[in-house]
Amino acid sequence: MHFVDREAKYPNRWTMKKSDGTSEVITLVRNDEPIVEGTPMNAETLNTLSDVAGADIARIAAEKAELNAKRSEINAETSAQESQRQAEKSAESARLAEQSANKGGWMDFEQKNGILYMVKSDSLTEINMQDNGSGILEVTFE
Questions:
Q1: CA atoms of 127 and 120, how far apart (whole Å)
Q2: From the CB of residue 109, how many other CB atoms can be counted at a distance below 10 Å?
């Protein structure tokens, strides 16, 4: 929006209508003796306010767009990580299925606090694990 100052042919000229129906053209002269002149109410002031408001609106929109872009980036990264985890699980399942199909038997272990735990196995019933003294774990199973 662009504001334009009003231009009058006869500035400060008014018509005064009286209660008896007659009228008279008069000129009003400001006579309030201002202490502070204040901000003028004109096109320049209004256009400046409009520009500032427009810049603020644009800044807010840009900040929202930046925030949305960051959220999208985080969501994409999270999705990629989850896809990677699913791919790893699928690959592990395929590996275990192949071992099972070949009747090779399988075991999965987890290490927690320096202790090795078997977390799952196919049909193995008896498992014996022993350190051979050289830091190598020997496993026998039936």
A1: 12
A2: 13
**Is the CB of residue 126 less than 8 Å from the CB of residue 141?**
yes
Compute CA distances 95 → 88, 119, 139, whole Å: 10, 16, 20
DSSP state of 35: S
Helices (H), 31-134: 43-101
pTM of the model: 0.39
> Is the CA virtual torsion 86, 88, 93, 97 positive or negative?
positive
Per-residue pLDDT of the chain (142 residues; tens, 9 = 90+): 889 999 999 989 999 999 999 999 999 998 899 999 899 889 999 989 888 888 888 888 889 999 999 999 999 999 999 999 999 999 988 877 776 676 656 666 677 787 766 666 666 666 777 777 887 777 776 6
Q: Identify which of 123, 101, 121 has the alpha carbon closest to the alpha carbon of residue 110.
A: 121
Q: Which two tokens stand for residue 55?
A: 């810049």
Q: What's the alpha-carbon Rg for the chain, to the nearest Å?
A: 43
